[in-house]
Specification:
The complex is a heterodimer of chains A (540) and B (423). With 540 residues, chain A is of the alpha/beta class. Chain A folds into two domains: 257 residues, 3-Layer(aba) Sandwich (Aldehyde Dehydrogenase, Chain A, domain 1), CATH 3.40.605; 185 residues, 3-Layer(aba) Sandwich (Aldehyde Dehydrogenase, Chain A, domain 2). In chain A, 39% of the residues lie in helices and 15% in strands. Chain B is of the alpha/beta class. Chain B has two domains: 139 residues, Aspartate Aminotransferase, domain 1 (Alpha-Beta Complex), CATH 3.90.1150.10; 244 residues, Type I PLP-dependent aspartate aminotransferase-like (Major domain) (Aspartate Aminotransferase, domain 2, 3-Layer(aba) Sandwich), CATH 3.40.640. Chain B has 15 helices and 15 strands. In chain B, helix 1 packs across helix 2, helix 5 runs parallel beside helix 12 and helix 13 runs parallel beside helix 15. The longest helix of chain B has 24 residues. Chain B is globular. The chains are: A alpha/beta (540), B alpha/beta (423). Chains A and B meet through helix 1 of A and helix 4, helix 5, helix 12, helix 13 and strand 11 of B.
Amino acid sequence: MEPQVRNLVDISTSPAALRSCADLVLGRAQWATQVFQRYDRSATMAIVDAVAQAIHDNAQKYADWAVEETGFGVPADKKLKNELSAFPLVDYYRDEDFINPQIDIGRKIVKIPRPAGVIVALTPATNPISTINYKIIMALMTRNAIVISPHPAARACCVDAAEMLARAAVSAGAPDGIIQIIEQPNIPLIEEFMKSPKTSLILATGGDAMVRAAYSSSNPAMGVGPGNAPVFVDSSADISKAAERIVDSKSFDNSVLCTNESVLVTLTQIDKQLRRALEGYGAYICSDEETEVLRRFLFHAKGFNVEAVGRDAVWIAQECGIRVPVKTRILVTPITQIGVEERLSKEKLCPVLAYHVVPNRTQAIAQARAILRLTGAGHSAAIHATDERVIMEYASTVEVYRVIVNAPSSQGSAGFQTNLAPAFTIGTGFFGRSSIGENIGPQHLVHWTRIAYNKDPSETFGHFENLGPEFAGPLPQAPADGVPGSSSPKTIVPPNSSSEFTGLKSSGPKSSGPKPYREEFSREELRKLIAEELRAALKR
Amino acid sequence: MSQSKLDFLERSKEFWNPGKTQAWQDMGVDLVIDRREGYHLYDMDGQRLIDVHLNGGTYNLGHRNPELIEVLKAGMDRFDMGNHHFPALARTALAEALAACAPASDMKYTAYASGGGEAIDIALKTARHASQKKKIVSIAKAYHGHTGLALKAGDDRFSKLFLSEDTSDEFIQIPFNDLNAMEDALRRRDVAAVIMETIPATYGFPMPEEGYLPGVKKLCERYDAFYIADEVQTGLMRCGEMWACEKYGVEPDIMVTGKGISGGMYPIACVLISEKCGGWLKQDGFAHMSTMGGAELGCLVAMKTLEIVQRPEVRSMVNFISDYLRAGLDKIMAAYADFFIGIRQHGVVMGLVFNHEEGAKPVMRHLYKNGVWAIFSTLDPRVLQFKPGLLLSQEDAEEILRRLEIAVGLAREEIMGNRRRSF
């Protein structure tokens, strides 16, 4: 008979067990980042590039897996997002140096980068893998350790991807434990991670409830609010191009990016022309009756219908009994009001675009502000126009921190079809009750120690070129006296294969007993969690 | 020292142990531990100490580890010590958990004791029964505990005083790291078992030379003796694997684990017994009894301890801690090379060797004054036992090194004066 490992007294849900579990993972991360901070720029970038390569090589696999596990989005688009979160992201920041001191002779100041330390990263179900990739790359570029807290609905693909990237990082010489993931996330456990004194920074992407919890944790946090992007098509726009870009954006990954256009506002004078153009690119314009069916389908008494998130236009139309051409890419629902009384003017993480016509620009801008008052403050807006005065007036009036011009908003706000920083975490700033208004990048994960000289000219500034800090690299491996081959100190050479990491895993416990501190999430709890998140995001 | 502490020490001398109480005062260590949490101890006068003594790994997971407290509290709602005569849920569950992580595949049974010495006695009795021989070979200066047979297997420092040393030549002691001496001791095939601390702790952690322990095991096989691994101080991940003997490539016939397995929370020690040595358990299961040994509450704590130490994060932590401390110790050793002359290390089992026959004592005293508690090796006071915990934070590790450097400097000055350093 084989021995079984079992639990007679289960304490796995006790606060003590949850806290200890978090403490252990974070303690390991603290060690990892401390060692990582001994690495120089080339060793760091070698690790970043190895991880980017692993992301790139596995973009398709995890795109398929994420769609299969969550039911959200389009595999081809997810693959593209995964690829974008590898080398394009790294290249965007490649020339920036987050590791060596920077000398400003004119100001007599030297800046020394100091990584945050341990980052706890919450990631969403809608963009699970791309967000993980993005946060891992940013953490590695700045020599931080990262602990991922995946959304329970995308748990399996996230755990597999993060462990694969952890192996890739260690194989390229990174300290063990620099990338970790919470294998069985649940709310009380995540709260322990967020409030631990060992957590240096929380990067929260996800539902509003989680973001608010991150800010309430007592630790530094960068969280983002929900989106609800208005897009204004002005009479000065190239209408055909505008229509094409809007349909591309709205159908991209079935609108799961929170930067997608939610409500189109346009002017009476170009209404007909714009409708025709939209139809030409695969939009289906709903009748009033069809709009009403969609309204009831998408918004239940308690909030947005989770079933519709990330579904394609044809599927949604079928569910509503609306007959549409098979090539339909988005559904357009004309609405006559903006505000609490019109649910379709709220955020819709699916390819349904509300369409609102106004007589003049002044009203258009007022309506755009109203859309963001409902939800999505601080997030994104788009405009299609060639008249700079309109663009300036729109951008300086709507309460967002990025206004995308003549480009698809989904991809544009996330920095993929604009020159904004590529990001899956969009700072919603003061408008959106967030600490940061930019697209989050690696520069937000370091602070700088400034050596500041007396500005009196009689005090001369020192010569700091090539003065360090000392980059000692990986810790030498301590001897295990008496064990063949390990009695004298030696420096670790990064192994060529991932054997170090997998070896660590496989030589763990021989028993396959329960891991009592990591609880499975039931389907029911999962549904509740997602529903709550969406509700919180949409009810405002 | 506060008046209340002075008063307390008087009472300790009066009612508990006058010799021991006074000896610590004489050594300049006036410690009376009051609060304790994680790797921090607080003297009754409030001084904080980082604990790198851990009572030989008893506090591997820290003092009052929250999960162990929780499991003990929750366990008390259902269990007590249990009835040692009967099959018991917790005792069998722990035995299975141990079998699942045992260092040899045929290690099946677990017999229970309330402490390490008693467990060693069980191990030696088991070997004697299985071999039907009486002689036990151990290492000179070994330490296996203070009970009947364990006492005789150890150094006579602890047995002579009580007129309890071996007088019938049943306990043979030979030098460590000497395979010839081992072969001489075993050659007549009249030895029941060799008992080995994988790394002799109380003797200051002299490290087994390459091939020594596997060599001993081979000799045991050749001359029909059993190999008993005393993993009380070296097991439970302290050497980076579950059991140190695994690192040396030795599969023992019997293994003893104690100290750390209790989590420092409920006394328990265990003897893992291979199928071939476990005959008495079938022949006469009542032959050894222990009312407190394997108390079910202790089993619950031990199971949680086993589960925690096997988490992948712990293995990673142990590597970081041992590498980091070693790098720091090497630097301190280089700075005081005429006094701090050696580091013995395997994982977080470490012995710091000083160039004076009692050199570890002033280091211990200055460490104590500087907020770190580490103890000298009783049987080799040149060596300071340096035993950090498995879950030590980077912050505490850095603190330990910072304070150690100061203490080593002060101890060197005390012993060697202002003599010019020879480097």
